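re: that complex we talked abt at group meeting.

here r the seqs, copy pasted straight from the sheet so there may be weird spacing, ignore it
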Amino acid sequence: MEHIIKNGFVYDPLNEVDGEKMDICIKDGKIVDSVSADANVIDATGKIVMPGGVDPHAHVAGAKVNVGRMYRPEDSKKDVEAAATGGRAGSGFSVPSTFMTGQRYAQMGYTTVMEAAMPPLLARHTHEEFHDTPIIDHAAFPLFGNNWFVMEYLKEGDVDGCAAYASWLLKATKGYTIKIVNPGGTEAWAWGGNVHGIHDPSPYFDIEAAEIIKGLAQVNEMLGLPHPIHLHCNDLGHPGNYETTLASFDVPKGIKVNAKTGSRDAVLYATHVQFHSYGGTSWRDVVSEAPTIANYVNKNDHIVMDIGQVTLDETTTMTADGPMEFDLHSLNGLKWANCDVELETGSGVVPFIYAARAPVPALQWAVGMELFLLTEDAKKVCLTTDSPNAGPFTRYPRVISWLMSNRARTDLMEGELHKWAQRKSSIATIDREYSFLEIAQVTRATPAKVLGLSDTKGHLGAGADADVAIYNFNPEIQNPSADYRALEAAFQHASLVLKDGIPVVKEGVVVNPTLRGRTYWVDTMLDETVYNEVVADVEKQFKQFYSVNFANYPVQDSYLPHSTPVKGVIQ
Amino acid sequence: MITLKPKEQPEVPLEVENVTPDAFAGKTVDEIKALPIWHGNGTVPLSDFFEVEGEAGATAAETQIIIDGDVPQTKRIGSGMTAGEITVKGNVSMYVGVGMKGGKITVEGNAKSWAGQDMSGGELTIMGNTGDYVGSSYRGDWRGMSGGLITVYGDAGNEAAEYMNGGKIVIKGDVSIMPGIHMNNGLLIIEGNVIARTGGEMAGGTIVVKGVIDEFLAGFKYHGVEKDIEVDGETIPGAFYKFTGDYAIKGANGTVYAAVAGNSHIAP
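got the structure back, here u go
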């Protein structure tokens, strides 16, 4: 099947196309240079054409997401969609059901989404949910930062052993990257505590966060993984945490990029940095340190970050940062779910209301906006809300409207937003507005590149997957700054979305809800001898410590009907 | 006045969100007969299960509905109503008066669980007994009933006034366990007896128990005996032990009054 998308305003940063009127040709699910005269013509006159959106960090599938769904029936009640609106019926505002998750991403023109935290032991559940999440390509990030094996290998200085273990775990869980959450802290939570800063050793294992981050960053490059270490720093959400954040950013600096797939420049991906950019010593004297963080990112090229923008909604927080969730529950008194995952990690879930009229959420909103607007190069920034932690992914269009419209921000600040936003941050003094090219950069190009998927994702050059989003907004006639509400509406319900060349959304309505996306995972093997030794050792430890048998642990291939391995180092 | 005469009640329950003065107001009898009600996973016209007679008022406030008989398989009568009146001359199923904002509902028989869930105004009167969760929040929500009055002349089940946030509930009979659990505000008066755990994890509001509380919780502080107590602008005659708590919750500020008569076993 051939398509030609004619006359749209194309924004494709990876190919340096900035709003030019040009045609996009599609053949057999791929972007090509030209098509025959028989190609189906799609008229995009007066519309914006972008590659399909890429979300590098969201919580959309797996055990803790499902806990969120199950223990928040009141969240399901307030957002119910009947099948009549296209696709399958579903419910849930902050933690939508699987079908609605895939459909709503597609409606916004997103075609690739990463599940940011997968407890290895619960990988099977995550892949089962992927199977029921339509349309979007996806991958899951297994959690490494509080894993007993990782901590033991690194404590002993056995980086080779750690690398072999990591390659086995990625294969066994069909995982995509090395995710690190509050390194050492979640393990400390199993002992009733937490760690503070990167030099506070975790109990029993007696290893510092800095050693875990550094060791895993080395492992990441030894294995040639497509994505750098994906780091959720220590001390999330604590006033004064920006110093820990800056110290953490420095740890992997100097390690050389060695990605076997893709073309990333970063050795560190720092996630939801908004939650890690606070000054002060308490919630009374807290201030934004976003300018300090943005300044660091401006001056350093080894890092790419996503923001975790607060959207000022009632949402559900969920993270492997177990102790942080307990702190949050102690703060807001709302219901708390907590889980310990044997030798691997833990997690917590707490509802949270980011009320615009309340001081702290207003400041958090401002911190996120400052990070977006003070980081000069959009090649270092990804747009996220750490969905659903700072707000549901369905608010990305609103975040885009804030970024593109100083007026949208001013209207909010002069309206209901608490004055702490202005008083404790510099947001009111910033008048930068993102261009459409920069929006395409932070929602497509940067995430695709840093994920190591930019050969096929995040751009519209020949050879890319034909994932294309067309939006009803005419940049020649309409002004995104003045008409920010129309902008938000256009990005909420795309005019047309193609996934691998197949129409999946037409005028905001899902038309192909049975389509299923690829599951990316990383296949890598550094040294077979070490690998076999390590696996034999792991098997022995399983008998002693795990509640499941070693043979039953790896996810079977049948769980990945659209398995798409990405190669790391193979020797 | 509109009279709904129930035909046979089906085994699969009906959900009648449309049986409200708001939905009936300004409609002809034929239009009312055609109003959709849920039966299983699909809708049927109201007239499939009810004979409809009479005349609706121009507005909800001027519309009175009489359900003339037992409807034990009919849920959500008066759902979200804002004004007017509904009288049921028999028993009802679950969720009568759910999300009610105004007007009056009288059930002359018994009501099953979740009566007056999430109510914010109006009056719900149940002449018989009711099940669990009378005047509760929506499942999972921590923001429950915020206004209005519920009166139960018979007994109620477990977790009456769960997460109550305002308004008043009077239960003239006995209740089972955990009345006023997680209560944050409002007034719950129980004229009969309570089995156990009155006010468990309550953070605010007032519970008055005129009968006997078999077992009381440890998280409450005793403040002595008070006579003819004044709550919510009215005086309740009698002598009561006063407790505050439940201090299992941080910053708790709830009050429980238990009649001195019969409750000496819970006073220190």
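couple things i noticed - Chain B touches chain A at residues 137-142, 249-250 (CB under 8 Å). The first helix of chain B runs from residue 21 to 24.
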